[in-house]
Write a structure and sequence with these properties.
Layout: H1 2-7, E1 13-16, H2 18-24, H3 31-42, E2 46-49, H4 55-64, E3 68-69, H5 80-85
Parallel strand pairs: 1-2, 2-3
Length: about 90
């Protein structure tokens, strides 16, 4: 039923909230995050994950196939002008 409802939502990108990352991107529970990403991809949508603060979280989410990953790991929130000229301190 959930998958059926999601196919009718007129969006192209689904965003996974930081609270889910905090609660489920932990040892023994992280398969939940991988399953959510797979479900979103099966619905031909993209997955954005927010709230990433550590390198291991970034690595794990890339393994799961997250399309976009956001969080303090990369940068504090920026204004539009700051974002245009932003250069990461490391290669991603």
């Amino acid at each position: 039923m959930c998958g059926t409802i999601l196919t009718y939502i007129p969006v192209d990108v689904i965003k996974l909230d930081k609270s889910l990352v905090d609660n489920y991107l932990v040892e023994g529970k992280d398969s939940f995050i991988g399953n959510v990403i797979r479900l979103v991809h099966d619905l031909n949508k993209e997955m954005t994950v927010e709230g990433v603060e550590e390198n291991w979280q970034y690595v794990r989410l890339k393994e799961f196939g997250a399309d976009t990953i956001q969080g303090f790991y990369f940068s504090k929130p920026l204004s539009a002008d700051e974002a245009i000229v932003f250069k990461p301190a490391f290669d991603i």
